[in-house]
Design goal:
Blueprint: E1 21-23, E2 55-60, E3 68-72, E4 76-77, E5 80-82, E6 98-100, E7 115-118, E8 123-126, E9 138-140, E10 144-157, E11 160-173, E12 177-181, H1 188-195, E13 203-208, E14 211-212, H2 218-228, E15 229-232, H3 244-255, H4 261-270, H5 286-298, E16 304-308, H6 316-332, E17 336-341, E18 352-357, E19 360-363
Parallel strand pairs: 12-17, 12-18, 15-16, 16-17
Antiparallel strand pairs: 1-5, 1-9, 2-3, 4-5, 6-7, 7-8, 10-11, 10-13, 13-14, 18-19
Helix pairs in contact: 3-5, 5-6
């Protein structure tokens, strides 16, 4: 139940556990399907037409199949059937509720030895085998990584109310690279700081990964921000007395976590700066410093990247290089990226472009 196949030209990945699976209206109503990771391009004919309320699948819990949990359809969207999510800590609403153990929520899919927890009796059973007849045409339910619900931001300037951002409804999905362009003072930075929880809306609500964000207290917003959001600013903002690799280790220090040397090396290699890891910021170029800033922003593996004029101080070649890196990270790791920029040459790498003018955000149509 935890995997989907992208049918909209986005990269199919295995980290859509929270998205659920949408079965076509040709779906088999009696398939043993939830122990099988649906990998990209897996498509097999469905056999029977599913009906709302009927059993949609069976979780097989042991070799003999003697213990099973029936899973029922609970909703229809555009003539498609939406399967309940299996998400850590969240249960189905049918009689035999099931909650996955954290060990299932991982990149490599469900493995032998993983466990299923039954909410009805707190029993955990290991996965000991897979069925092989549960492949079918699927399409993903795309999570809204960031959603603005009638959000505005107002400031007082003496007796005058300044509308920095007028009421805005917009969402950015996982796997989407979005640009926001517009003149200085138009509200771009206000929009980005609201998305990142650095400010709170005057009215409306900002949600992150379909969960409350802007309405949380500052402590909770900070926790979510640190776990889910990577910021890349116009200036690289590197610590001048730390080497390149220690810029990333600083993230671990803040979290009071053990330094992940392998992860640091992998990320620096991916960005083409592994050979610079012992260098200080003043010993490398502007483009290299910006790649270090990107590495630092990605080190926590955030689901969202917010980039504020990340190429402003770079020449054309370096600017394109940085944007290509962001686009690659967005697609390959199914992240959501918002890039504020004044440089319209860079928007060719983006899925959507929004124009900000006088606090009004509008989607560019051509």
């Amino acid at each position: 139940l935890s995997y989907g196949l992208a049918e909209d030209n986005r990269t199919a990945v295995d980290k859509w556990q929270a998205d659920g699976i949408v079965l076509s209206d040709e779906a088999n109503t009696n398939i043993n399907m939830s122990m099988i990771p649906i990998k990209s391009k897996d498509q097999v004919e469905a056999k029977e037409k599913a009906v709302l309320g009927q059993t949609a699948g069976v979780i097989q819990l042991d070799k003999k199949g003697s213990e099973k949990i029936n899973v029922s359809f609970f909703g229809i969207n555009k003539n498609e059937f939406l399967m309940p999510n299996i998400v850590e800590g969240k249960a189905f609403t049918n009689e035999n509720e099931a909650v996955v153990d954290k060990s299932l929520n991982k990149e490599n899919g469900i493995q032998l030895g993983d466990t299923i927890k039954l909410a009805s009796n707190d029993k955990k059973i290991k996965v000991v085998g897979f069925t092989d007849n549960a492949k079918f045409n699927v399409s993903p339910v795309l999570l809204k990584a960031i959603e603005f619900l009638t959000v505005d931001k107002q400031f007082l300037d003496g007796d005058t109310t300044i509308e920095a951002l007028k009421p805005t409804n917009v969402s950015v999905e996982k796997g989407q690279f979005v640009a926001v362009i517009g003149p200085s003072g138009s509200g771009k930075s206000t929009f980005l700081t609201l998305a990142g929880g650095l400010q709170t809306p005057t009215n409306g609500e900002v949600k992150i990964n379909d969960e409350a964000f802007s309405q949380e207290n500052e402590k909770q917003r900070s926790k979510i921000r640190f776990a889910e959001i990577g910021f890349i600013l116009q200036a690289s903002n590197l610590v001048p007395f730390l080497t390149v690799e220690k810029q990333l280790y600083l993230v671990d220090k803040v979290q009071k976590a053990k330094a992940d040397v392998d992860k640091v090396n992998e990320l620096l290699t991916q960005l083409g700066i592994e050979h610079l890891k012992k260098k200080y910021p003043d010993e490398i170029s502007g483009g290299e410093r910006q790649r270090v800033a990107i590495a630092r922003a990605l080190y926590n593996d955030p689901s969202i990247i917010l980039a504020d004029e990340p190429t402003a101080s770079l020449d054309s070649d370096r600017a394109f290089e940085v944007v290509k890196i962001l686009a690659k990270e967005t697609k390959e790791k199914n992240k959501a990226t918002i890039m504020v920029t004044h440089d319209q040459r860079l928007i060719d790498y983006c899925d959507e472009v929004f124009i900000m003018k006088d606090g009004v955000l509008e989607k560019q149509t051509s």
